[in-house]
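Hi support team,

I'm filing this because I wasn't sure whether my run with manganese (III) ion finished correctly. The job status page said complete, but I'd like someone to confirm that the output block is well-formed before I use it downstream. Pasting the exact inputs I used:
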Amino acid sequence: MTIKTDNGRRGFLKNSLLLTATGLVAPFMLKVKGSSPGISTSNENVAADGGPFTLPALPYDYNALEPHIDTTTMQIHHDKHHAAYVNNLNKAIQENNLSGSVMGPLALDEMIKNISKYPMAVRNNGGGHWNHSFFWKNMKPNGGGTPTGKLATAINDVFTSLDAMKTKFDEAGTKRFGSGWAWLYVTKDGKLDIGSTPNQDNPMMDISDIKGTPILGLDVWEHAYYLKYQNKRADYMNAWWNVVNWDQVAENYAAATKQ
Ligand code: MN3
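And here is everything the job wrote out:
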């Protein structure tokens, strides 16, 4: 009986310590919950690890992009791959004592733009976090179709037609050897261009061969398509145009050409 009581006390003390720890990160967790209306519970796992960065919830259900992007791929891609980038970014921030200078999404942008000053783990995982957060918003259920307004005009001016732009974009993605991303981006001169980056790099990074502000990006890592499309990256890219969120791309274009 005595031993049981001791265990009970120890258990109580342990729980109290956990509660204290939870109390310390409570504002952080509340922020996560507030920014993710009713989709994934995986956010809380990431928040529990601590660190300045959190996994954003998908802006739609896992199955929302079927049949073009399958449910299981979306679950693994978001809950495992993107979550791992966030966790490993937080770890890299802690291990390199960078926490004082990194406080949120705006800081992530600044970090990405000056990535040559950071360790490789920050480049890979910070890039992974930025790219995937951007990628989810670039898609939506019943997407596809054609862009309108200034974006449509700019695409026609630079590439002659939407189809010609898609062909160039598809080439950038299929020709990327190994893992990487295809991008439609705005250059410093305010012009549209297309290119690709390796690994988790992107055109905002100061080390990138192509430079500018991304307005549309496609993940061509095998983890993004292998379950449904196996080795057929071109088929995946072709299907992906059916879920592109052109309203979001137009917003990105407006923001990128304002500066
Ligand atoms: Mn990915």
